[in-house]
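Let us practice reading a record.
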Amino acid sequence: MLTFRTKLALAILHDIQYKDYQLSTSFNPSPSEIAYLLQKLSKEHLITRIENQPDNQPESYRLACAYHQINLLSILEALGEGIYFNRPSDEKFYSCYGTTARKLGIVNQMTRLYLMEISIAELPVSECLIENSIPHI
């Protein structure tokens, strides 16, 4: 349900919280991807850079609030990412989109409310993120 980029951001936040810095490196990300994610997370005030530290390394940052207060919705919005349902899309669904817009709006709002209730402290780390598979709920 979560993209590689979102999972990497979760790993970076985990590493910053626990000063471990191994989970995010297990993804083998490019330095430019790490820098991009740090910039996005910083811009949305999820992390802050430690004074006189380089801006392209997770070690240079600290969380802007308590770890358990960071929710999945804030991360998705910071990254401009979304969640992707594990159901194959079919053309019939898309052709009906116009008539179902109101229902989709309700689903969207309910999803946002539920995502705001998911603290990153509740998400599994280590092997779940490394394998690029967050368990489906």
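A brief commentary: Confidence is low (pLDDT under 50) at residues 133-137.
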